[in-house]
Every structure is written in structure tokens, then in C-alpha cells.
Amino acid sequence: MKGDARATGVGAEAAEPPRHGHLRRRSGVATYFKLAASVIAVFAVSAAAVVAYAAVDLVRTVQQKPTVTLANEQILEGVPDIGAIDGGLSFLLVGSDKRPADGSFGDPDIDSAVLNDVTMLVHLAQDHSHVEVVSFPRDMLVSVPECPDPADSANTLPALFETPLNGVLQWGGLACVALTIEQLTGVTIPVGGVVEFEGVAALAEAVGGVEVCLADPVDDDRSGLHLAAGRHLITGYTALSFLRTRHGVGDGSDLGRIASQQTFLASLARTMQSSGTLGDPVKLYSIAKVILSNMQLSNALQNPVTLVAVARALQAVDLSRITFVQYPTVYDYALRYVSPSESAELVNLALQQDLPLAVNPDATTNASFGTIPDPTAPTPAPPPAVPPATEPGRGASVTPTPAPTPSVPPATVLPDDVTGLSADEVRCATANPG
């Protein structure tokens, strides 16, 4: 079926039952090469004593999870290293609200609609000098291009117009979400993955917890988050509740939830780097195991070598150059949905040109859905003055020549209506006063 269609309730209010496509059976040759790739990957980061076990275990984990094909994953074919990908690597991360089968978050047959409540684009620069993480509001109205039908590869789903973003996952699967974000931003997306409730809790456990800051106490029965004001090391289902809470933070909207999610992700980035996780073979294996066990990854990420390469690249990026941005939007007349604002084009252009982004912290603080700087954080001391060196045999001082610094592209300074933060900023989520 081809053609155009006007979306009528492809969001949370009226979603069609999910459809699942048939997976191709992996051949013995493909399995062999997966195993070989895993051995190489683990050899690169681990001691030889655990190579065999880790490689086989990761391959077995990969084979147990369904996969999905993205339209532009072929750009990775024949590329020797992720640093050789022209324009950098863009990864689509989708968080599904599908409930676990054990009923821990409601009846999976009644409360689940398989909506992409979280949609993020992670862009790793080609020279690995900066990373941008762009969050797209779930209630943003978007145009959806024609997409392959995940239930029938011979069929094509029609295009949609002005439909809520969070209904696209159920409409056409991860591949359709990727095509939609590609059309919106002009960025090519070769890789991606979907994570569900259990995966978020497991990841927080695997890294040993993530510290978050609350400016006010939060009591939200809907998400199950009950925390006093101040800093908290959260893990497992508490971390999941923090990421899910919408009514308890900011202005009670999804925009407020995105703002608090960004504080969590910035703290996660600091944790991953400060604890040496990405450089520790044992910890890295644990993270890889959690990711492979709890995510549906696109084909190109089934190769553990690629996962390790991405982890190593992220490890080397300075925290101040990891920027979390909320895609700028404006509300419609009914204050129900949002649409991209004029500033969104600046975000798009920077991503297309592989340029870093810089957010005005005041914009985030002053937004009704924003976060505030941690009031307990100490003011950083100015760097100590370096005394001039004395030339041997003379009393006159000689100003030392500064060491050359690597060339870093200038950041695109975003307008005041674009909110976010860098990973080295500690910000606190505010409670919803309503």
C-alpha cells in the first residue's frame, strides 16, 4: 500500500496494535564471523584469560535479541573505523513505554502502546572532539515519510502529516522513527536501538548508580518517584522512576521531563569517565552485556567491534564538549502539541556540518520547564598563575611558550530559546509546583 494519509490519533490516544516482522535466520557463516569479531573486540580491551568466555557470551546474547534494518546502514559498509565516517556517526536511541511482561508497571496488554516516549539523536563528531545528544519531545508534531512495513517487507506504509512523534514507533518500528528524524534534521542515521523499562534499570545498576540533584522534594505517585531535595545516588527502578517522572518535575510537561533526563545523562557521562568504566575491560564487558541483553539494536550494531569502537571514542571526549540539547519547539494554540521553532534549523545545520553546539545556561534556568544550577556546588577556583621562567645565567624572566592546543571547531552558540547543558555541568531538577 502506498500513498499519503492524515494521521488521526497515531499517538497515545489511539494506537494500532503492534505488528512484528519475520526475522531472517542467521547462517552458520554469519555466526562464525560474529564470533570472530567478538574475539577481536574483547582482545582489544581485556586480558586473554577471559577472551573466550566473553566473546562467546556476547555472541550468544546478540543472537537472542531481534534485530532491525535501518535504511542508511549501508554507509558503514567497507568503512575501516568509525572515525572514517564522513560527517561523524549519528545514533538513534529510542525509549519505548512497552510494559514488562511481569506486570511491574501495569498490565502489559492494557497499559502498553509501544510508543517512543523518548527519542534521542546522539552525534559523535568525525574527529571525536565533541558529542551532541538531541532530545525530541514526544508530543512534537512531525511529518513521517513512507516507511517499510515491519510486518511485511513487500509493503510500504503511507506518509503521515502532523502526527505526534511518539506514535511513529508503533506505526512503522525503529526504521520508521529513524527515517522521520532524518527527514526532520537532514542527518543520516545508520545505527540505532530501542530500550525498554527493564533495560534502563539494568544500565543504572551496571554502572553502580548515577548521582542526581533535586532542587525540591519530589513526590510523584504516577512514576513512583519519592525523593527529598538534595543529591541522591540512584539505581535500578529508582533511576527508572526518575527518568519517567513527568508530573513531578518542571512544569509537569514532557519538556520538563526531558530537562531532568538531561541532568541524569550528564551525570551518567561523568560517572562513566570518572570511574574509568569505558577503559576498564570488566566494567566495559558488563555494560556491553546489559546493552545487548536489553536493547533491540540495528544490524550494524550487532558487531561488538563497533560497540567497543564507539565506547573508546566516547571515553576520549572532554565532558565540556558533550552537549545535551532539547530540540527547540513552540506550543500550538491548544497547548497540547508542539512544533519545531525557527531555532531548530540552527540545530539541524550544526549537526549536518558536524559542528559542536553551545547552550546558554541562563536559557535553561529561566525556562518554565528548565533546571537550575546546583546551589551546593562549590565555585571553581581560578587556575593558579604560572610564574615566568628564569633564563639560566640571567635574572631576567622569560615568558614560557604555551603548548600548542589541538584544533577544535568553533561551537554554534544557540539562541536563548534552546535549552540544555554540557556534561560537566551539575544541574538540579525542580519540582512541579502544580
Describe this structure in words.
- The chain is an alpha+beta fold and 434 residues long.
- It has helices at 28-45, 51-64, 168-185, 197-206, 236-244, 254-274, 281-294, 304-315, 344-352, 361-366; strands at 4-6, 89-96, 116-124, 131-136, 141-144, 147-149, 152-157, 159-164, 191-195, 210-214, 218-220, 225-227, 230-234, 295-297, 322-326, 329-331, 338-340, 357-358, 372-373, 389-390, 397-398, 412-413, 420-422, 427-428.
- The chain folds into two domains: 4-23 and 66-377 and 411-428, 3-Layer(aba) Sandwich (Aminopeptidase), CATH 3.40.630; 24-65.
- It contains ten helices and 24 strands.
- A seven-stranded mixed sheet has the order 14-9-2-3-4-15-23, sandwiched between helices. Strands 1-8-5 form a three-stranded mixed sheet.
- Helix 1 runs parallel beside helix 8, helix 2 runs parallel beside helix 7 and helix 4 (197-206) runs antiparallel to helix 7.
- The protein is globular and about 55 Å long.
- Keywords: Membrane, Transmembrane, Transmembrane helix.
- Residues 375-390 have a biased composition (Pro residues).
- Residues 1-22, 366-422 are annotated as: Disordered.
- Pfam families: LytR_cpsA_psr.
Itemize the secondary structure elements and their pairings.
Elements: E1 4-6, H1 28-45, H2 51-64, E2 89-96, E3 116-124, E4 131-136, E5 141-144, E6 147-149, E7 152-157, E8 159-164, H3 168-185, E9 191-195, H4 197-206, E10 210-214, E11 218-220, E12 225-227, E13 230-234, H5 236-244, H6 254-274, H7 281-294, E14 295-297, H8 304-315, E15 322-326, E16 329-331, E17 338-340, H9 344-352, E18 357-358, H10 361-366, E19 372-373, E20 389-390, E21 397-398, E22 412-413, E23 420-422, E24 427-428
Parallel strand pairs: 1-8, 2-9, 4-15, 18-22
Antiparallel strand pairs: 2-3, 3-4, 5-8, 6-7, 9-14, 10-13, 11-12, 15-23, 16-17, 19-24, 20-21
Helix pairs in contact: 1-2, 1-8, 2-7, 4-5, 4-7
Biased composition (Pro residues): 375-390
Transmembrane segments: 32-56
Keywords: Membrane, Transmembrane, Transmembrane helix
